[in-house]
Amino acid sequence: xxxxxxxxxxxxxxEGEFITINCSYSVGISALHxxxxxxxGGIVSLFMLSSGKKKHGRLIATINIQEKHSSLHIxxxxxxxxxxxxxxxxxxxxxxxxxxxxxxVIP
Amino acid sequence: xxxxxxxxxxxxxxxxxxxxFRCDPISEHNRLYWYRxxxxxxxxxxxxxxxxxxxxxxRLLSDRFSAERPKGSFSTLEIxxxxxxxxxxxxxxxxxxxxxxxxxxxxxxxx
Lengths: 107, 111
What we know:
The complex is a heterodimer of chains A (107) and B (111). Chain A is an all-beta fold. Chain A has no helices and eleven strands. In chain A, strands 2, 4, 5, 9, 10 and 11 form a six-stranded mixed sheet that branches. In chain A, strands 1-3-8-7-6 form a five-stranded antiparallel sheet, with no helix packed on it. The mean pLDDT of chain B is 91. The N and C termini of chain B lie far apart (31 Å).
């Protein structure tokens, strides 16, 4: 059983579409992270959340602590958004990662 | 450029050999993490340091794996008697509080 589950595993969208990626977790957390990983392996931290909602450009992340659920939204998607998006939770000393959502945005 | 560097970026070795990887975190970060990532999977936690103290080590980690952070700055991860199943990307990340900054990773291939 994975501590962090993401859906969908793969997502293909047309440029301009609104995209939602979901993350559910089963452990108590101090923070939840959304990460972006491009081909070649580099990982970039997009958001760190412990409550509520954060927005950065076209990206919006929300978290519901009671439901143990978070969503990452991308508005007006663009081909350069194509990447793997990973949800990770911090439980004190350990991090648990989802397997990622592979997003492809087609022009 | 996240500021976390890893060396080497790629390593090819024969089964049974020992390998050592290095991670240099962002200088003021006191926390350092090692992860392993195989193709199509999310990163898997290996171990965590706060300053020079190794505070957490995954139960899944074989005794062939050892990590050090002798002066609370850079860290090394050693794999002894490598096996083909050790082939993966080994990622290092550092943080001050919760937000992690990842290095580019070391890709290990065991032949």
